[in-house]
Amino acid sequence: MKLTWRPNGWHWLWIVISILYLALVATFTMRYWTIIQGESRATTWTIIWRMALVWVVPCLTFYALGSAAAWVWRSLRGRKL
Fold first, then answer.
1. 3-state class of 42 per DSSP?
2. DSSP-assigned letter for residue 8
3. 9 in the Ramachandran plot: left (φ > 0), alpha (ψ -120 to 50) or beta?
4. How far apart are CA 30 and CA 24, in angstroms?
5. String of b and e for 49-69 (b: at least 16 CB within 10 Å)?
6. What is the pLDDT of residues 1-58, one digit of tens each?
7. For the chain, first and last CA: distance in Å?
8. Contact call for residues 17 and 28 (beta carbons, < 8 A)
């Protein structure tokens, strides 16, 4: 868009309004990005904790079941029928 000089000063007013608008957009963008970045980090940590639990809980469960089965096997192996 070509801005032409207007003798009554509207040209300068248009430049000032444009600069203020760009500053407002830049401020809004930075604040919005900060919020999105914080939420993204929180979501990332939530996903990491859930995936850790998905792996750790079954592993501990199978370990406990294996220990219990070994304990029963050891106790039954020593008995003479």
1. helix
2. T
3. left
4. 10
5. eeeeeeeeeeeeeeeeeeeee
6. 555 555 565 666 677 778 888 889 999 999 999 888 888 888 888 999 999 999 999 9
7. 100
8. no
Extract the tokens encoding 75. 């106790």
**What is the reported pLDDT for 76?**
85
pTM comes to 0.47
Residue 19, both tokens: 């600069």
Tokens describing residue 38: 């914080």
Predicted local confidence at residue 78, as pLDDT? 74
Q: Residue 3: which residues within 8 A CB-CB, separation 6 or more?
A: 11, 14, 15
Torsion angle of C-alpha atoms 29, 18, 1, 28, degrees rounded to 10? 10
Kindly give, in sequence order, each residue whose CB lies less than 8 Å from that of residue 5, ignoring residues fewer than 6 positions away.
Answer: 11
